[in-house]
Amino acid sequence: MQAAEPIETIAQFLEWYGREEDRLAEGQDQEAHAYAELLRQRASQCSSMLCTIGDIEGQLARMESGYQAACEQTQSVQQACADLGVRRDQLMLTTSQVQAHLSVYNTLGRISQLLNSPGDRVCLDPEFLPSLTRTEEAIAFINAHSATARDSELFLMRFAQCRMRALSLIKMHALRVFKQLGADIGHAFEKNPSVGSSSRSAALYVRFRASATHLAPLLRALHERAGVAEAGSTEQQVLLDVQNAYFHARRAWLRPYIDDRLKAIAREHEQASDSTLPSVHVDSLRDWCAFMMNVCADEYRIYYDFFSGSADTVAGSSFAMSPALRAYLDSLMTIFHEHVRPIVIHESDVAVLAGLSLTLLTYHNPGNSEVSDSDNDDSSSVVSSRKSISYAPVDSELDAFYAVVDQILRDTQQRLVYKAQSFIRANISSYKVSKDDGAAVARWVQLCLRLRITDPEELVTLVAQASITVDMQQQQQQRQRQQQQRQQQGGDSDRLSSTGASSSFVDVTTAALGGGTAAADITGEPSETTARSTSSIAGLLKRMPGGHMATDDIDALRWIYPPVKSYRWLVSQIDGCIDFDVQQSVLDEALTACKQNLLNQGARFVREASSKDSQSPTPANDDIHADQLAHLFVTYNLNSIEHVFD
Q: What angle do CA 331, 347, 258 make, to 5 degrees?
């Protein structure tokens, strides 16, 4: 910063200083001036951009106004399209309604042409049932629009005629089919009168089931319409006529078939066994019940093959049996009743009546049996449950069968009770000791005196062990015969030693004592137990003269007073055949009569036989009194009564 010229004065200095100051100031403001110039340029550019943006905003505003106008126009077009769509739908609905209304009237010609077609198989046409459905729909439509439809009464009358014509065609076709089936069956039977029961059954069932294939849809349609129709309507009357024709066709051939079959079953049992045997009627009744049960089940199923769908569907639902079907099954069961009731009425044998009751109890419906009072004891409940056992299925198809079986069962049980009471009076209350029974009593008294038996338990033990020993003797003889046959086949018959059938009771007892292994093999009991039992018997046998006791003596000791036998037999026959309370009353009556006869007559005859034996030249035993033997006799027989249910 030196001056170009020497500074001599203050004025020069100040001038120089001012120049330097200006130069410095100018150097310092150059950047600011450059930046300010830049800012001025930028401001100019911003002004130019703002002008451009303003132009763009104006253009966008014009575009937005145009877009709004386009949107408004689009909405107007859409609304117009929507209105047109609604109008179009209304027109289409109107068109479909008009077409539907017209189709109702247009079907009249085709339906009339179909129903008036020649021939007798119009019902089998695939369009028959749909035409019937369309006819009913047309009638319902015309009834609903009768106020606005033109000529509605005329068309309604013509459609009603078509409907009546269709129902009449179904009826005539069904009657013709049933009549033809009856004629075919009759022709088959006339062509071969000796046809068997299986062939007749096939003719009665197979032919009908084959016809049900094409007839069932028609009858099912008729049944459905009759189910919703009013009482006394045409549908119900037509269905009733068809059912009557069906039942008439079935009944015309089934009743003779059932009657012949029941008679054939009875003849088969009579030829297979002696006609005097009680089991003939019982076996016949059992087969009759099984046959009639199958008949009712088959008739139930074949009926529902024609009417109202499948029998399996009906049986598994709450559908009630048709009253007409029930009346028809009742008429078939009347044949069974007419065969069984005379047997029950004319039968006097308690065993046969008991067998009939048990057979009927097997087939009766447990749901229909009367239940005993709740305050009965346990034994009553056990017997009641036992008598209610039934192996027959519980189903509505067997209601008619169960009704007749229960009715016959009540009659049979009443007859059984009456004849049981007559048996009690004849064989227990009014029993008189016969000559043979008197000899048996005398033989029994003689053996008891010789064995010096006064204890009933001792007598029971002797009889029981004697029975076991007799069985052992028979088994031993059978073993010896088998061994003899084997040895004869091997050529060693000369080494056999046979034992006769007249061996005494003591011989077998001694063999049991001496051969422990053999006795154990025969009786199946340990040899020590057998030895103790036979030892006690041997002690009693020592009291017999000679120590021997034959099989006849054992049978004489096992002799039971005939009224006691009759009571035991009666119990075995009627047990479980009648109601428990009635059975108990009958058995109490029989037991009372048995005890009275045993105490009055049996004891008296024992005393008389004992007195005769003691007065003989060689009395068996003087130590035993007649009263002791009478007490032994009564107690022994009462003991057998107490164990009657064992």
A: 25
Contacts of 19 (CB under 8 A, 6+ apart): none
Lowest mean pLDDT segment, chosen from 396-400, 525-529, 585-589: 525-529
Q: Which of 407, 376, 388, 425 is nearest to 581 (CA)?
A: 376
What is the model's pTM?
0.66
Residue 275 has pLDDT above 80, yes or no: no
Instruction: Please name the amino acid found at residue 76.
Output: S
Task: Retrieve residue 8's tokens.
Answer: 């001599």
Contact by Cβ (8 Å): 363, 403? no
Classify 285 as helix, strand or coil. Answer: helix
DSSP structural state of residue 392: S
Classified as helix, coil or strand, 1 is coil
Structure tokens of 158?
């013509």
Question: If you ran DSSP here, which 8-state letter would residue 319 be given?
Answer: P
| Distance of alpha carbon 512 from alpha carbon 441, whole angstroms | 31
Determine phi and psi for 369, rounding to 5 degrees: -75, 145
Residues 459 and 448 sit within 8 Å (Cβ to Cβ): yes
What is the 3 state secondary structure string of 113-154? Answer: HHHCCCCCCHHHCCCHHHHHHHHHHHHHHHHHCCCCCCCHHH
- Full 3-state SS string of 575-611: CCCCCHHHHHHHHHHHHHHHHHHHHHHHHHHHHHHHH
Instruction: For residue 89, give the nearest of 79, 100, 97 by alpha carbon.
Output: 97
Look at the alpha carbons of 175, 176, 180, 183 in this order and tell me if their dihedral is positive or negative: positive
Residue with tokens 């007419």: 338
Residue 598 per-residue DSSP state: I
Quick one: DSSP state of residue 623? S
pLDDT of residue 166: 87
Tokens in use for 237? 């009357």
pLDDT at 329 over 60: yes
Alpha-carbon torsion, ordered 629, 632, 634, 637, to 10 deg? -130
The closest alpha carbon to 222, from 212, 210, 234, 207, belongs to 234
